[in-house]
Amino acid sequence: MATLTVFFLVVNGGMIIGDSSEKSGFGRALYKSKLAHIALDEMNHFVGLLSTNGTLLEANRAALNATGLKRSDVIGKYFPETIWWSVSDATRKGVENAIHRVAKGEVVRYDVEVFGSSHGFDKVLVDFLLKPVKDENGKVIFMLAECYDNTANARKKLEESETRFRSLTDTIPQLMWTTTPDGSLSYANERCLQYTGIESIEKFGQIWMTKIHPLDADDLYAAWKCSVNSGKKIEQEYRMQNAEGNYRWFLGRVLPIKNKDRIIQYWIGTATDIDDQKKVLAELEVAKELAERANATKSAFLANMSHEIRTPLGAILGFSGLLKDNDLSEKEREQYINTINRNGQSLTRIIDDILDLAKVESGRLEVEEIDFSLNNLLNEVLDLFCEKAKLKGISLRLKIDQEVPDFISTDPTRLRQILINIIGNAIKFTAVDGVYVHVKLKQNVEGALRIDIFVKDTGPGLSEEQKSRLFKPFSQGDNTMTRQFGGTGLGLVLSQRLSQALGGGISIEECAPGKGSTFVISFVATVSKKSAPDLVPVREPAKFNSKLLPLKDIKVLLVDDSLDNQFLVNRLLSKNGAWVELAGDGAEAVEKALANTYDIVLMDIQMPTMDGYQAIEILGQKNYDKPVIALTAHAMLEDQLKTKAAGFSGHLTKPIDVNELVESIKQQTTKQYIQ
User: Which residue has the higher pLDDT, 405 or 546?
Assistant: First the structure.
């Protein structure tokens, strides 16, 4: 009984074996004892007794039956080399490490897979416990090994875990899947099948690549194969076809899941639908680009508008000041008044265009229905341009087809605006041959008319890029047109909006660089039921009464393409004693400045043929050493910085401040006052 009692203490956790009755050979007697065999065999889990060097001394029936082994197959062998631990090298090394630790008195316990099926060498998961058996002195004399089969419990936990995993993956909006280490599909969530319309996981694994957009498939497949071979995660955007046949953008991520030995156990992948985000980003990018273009266009428009407004405004203010002179003749007074009136009308047209465009853009433009003669309206508009066409040496012709009704009902005021803009542009840009206006009836359904007016010119024509910008606010074909021909850039877009308000539109039927353009004005109407002379600049100083001549004997070259401005500035300078000569553009200014001796040059910036910047550049190349002041309607700070950088000696803005003009000239020429 003493021996049996001691054994049970060992099996059930007793770590000390007493030897009160036998002083030697106790251990050998113990493991050879039949009672020990009976006790071990009664246990239904693996129990084995090991020597301190790891040799298996005893194993119970449960241990042998697990693999169908005989005692002779394992007893006396090194425990790590027995069949149970032959699952892998890592398994053997694990139990060897445990033996070394227990030999030093530690207790080791961990879960491990071993061979243990009674139906063959199947792997089972066991709870492995190895603990030392010590004598009364605390010396390790044996090791007790126990294994508890956890396979059923582990399988249950695995099934529960898999159920939770599937439930979770089937509720997320992402497509999700797993693959074996070599990349073969092992699982796909419900979202994968719903999105692609593929009926089973097996089929999804076979044909999922056919759902990838042809332009993305090669790159995605190459990235996936590279990842499988390298063991590295991937992240890539691609398009995938849905069940309806439409493609949407996805962000795919694939991550390798590794064990503690850094060996890939499986791959897990997700695909997140980013199609809406991509569209938003694309729209934001387009919006940003459009905003930047609009900002640049509006900045250019503001600079041009400043020039267009300040030019007539300068003439109005300047000539108004001249009218205060009591020594004016009747002819001069009438000339000044006519100049003020003409520039006032020009300024009014600019403001009206801006206001009309604002009304159209805000939807507040009112269109009237008035009976009028289309023939008379067309002839009135052409009469406005006859003199200008004659001066340019070009023809201006009109043809109205016989079927076009004369008396119609629509808004004549708006139609007149459109015609003035389009025909005016045609004449402005035409230097040879002429402008041809042809009116055709496109449709007449019970008195409801659709009329087309073709305006053909022989001007410089338009490129496709220029054509695309024409009907946008604040834009002409390009900036060189603004410099060469003037204008606010509002005419065409306003005309387009007005013609749309009349039920039609404006299109370009023909255009090619160097071959002219043909604009088509289209509008809807119904059949009616009812039957200034050029200013000549003054070159000589006028007589006046003044005691001070601050600019006496100063020779000034005045460069400006506006006859009104030439007259005004000439008059102001002459009254202050200066001698003035005129030039109409930059090219003439360069020629005169290099051929004559002037004390100072006053130069406009925006002029045809050659502008002020081009002229100052040439003068600088010719080492021209006299001061050149920019006298311009460009009044913004960046314009002043630009003229300074270009080489101008100073910057004066229109409308002109006489005192500032005189003082600037005095400072630049270093002349003295003459009383």
Answer: 405
Q: What interhelical angle do 612-621 and 637-646 show, nearest 10? A: 20
Close Cβ partners of 199 (under 8 Å, ≥ 6 residues apart) = 193
CA–CA dist 540, 537 (Å, integer): 9
d(CA 183, CA 225): 8
State the Rg of the chain over Cα.
50
Residue pLDDT, tens place only, 602-624: 999 999 889 999 999 999 999 99
DSSP letter, residue 20: S
According to DSSP, the β-strands at 175-179 and 600-603 are unpaired
User: According to DSSP H, which parts of 523-623 are helical?
Assistant: 563-575, 586-595, 612-621
Question: What ranges make up the beta strands (E) of 416-528?
Answer: 434-445, 448-456, 505-511, 517-527
Beta bridge partners, 580, equal 556
Largest CA distance in the chain: 154
DSSP per position, 336-381: HHHHHHHHHHHHHHHHHHHHHHHHHHHT------EEEEHHHHHHHH
CA distance 139 to 64: 29
For residues 641 and 471, the model is more confident at 641
Query: Tell me: the pLDDT tens digits for 126-144?
Result: 889 999 999 888 899 999 9
Mean pLDDT lowest among 408-412, 424-428, 662-666: 424-428
Q: Are strands 434-445 and 395-400 parallel, antiparallel or unpaired?
A: parallel
Looking at 354-358, 407-411, 434-438, 506-510, which range is the least confident one? Answer: 354-358
**Cα within 13 Å of Cα(263), Cβ side:** 3
CA–CA separation, 50 vs 129, rounded Å? Answer: 12
Distance of CA 563 to the CA centre of its chain: 48
The C-alpha atoms of residue 621 and residue 602 are separated, in whole angstroms, by: 18
Predicted TM-score (pTM) of this structure: 0.38
Integer Cα distance of 272 and 134 in angstroms: 61
* Residues 112, 126 contacting (CB under 8 angstroms): yes
Q: Which has the closest alpha carbon to 574: 599, 549, 603?
A: 549
Residue with tokens 């008319």: 449
Q: What is the mean pLDDT of residues 563-577?
A: 91
- Are the CB atoms for 521 and 645 separated by under 8 Å? no
CB neighbour class for 511 (10 Å; exposed up to 12, middle 13-18, buried from 19)? buried
- Which of 109-113, 366-370, 660-664 reaches the highest mean pLDDT? 660-664
Contact 44, 136 (CB under 8 A): no
Res 208 pLDDT > 60: yes
Could you tell me which residues are beta bridge partners of residue 651?
Answer: 630
Q: Do the Cβ atoms of 132 and 103 come closer than 8 Å?
A: yes
* 206 and 229 Cβ atoms separated by less than 8 Å: no
Rounded to 10 deg, the angle between the 563-575 and 658-669 helix axes is 70
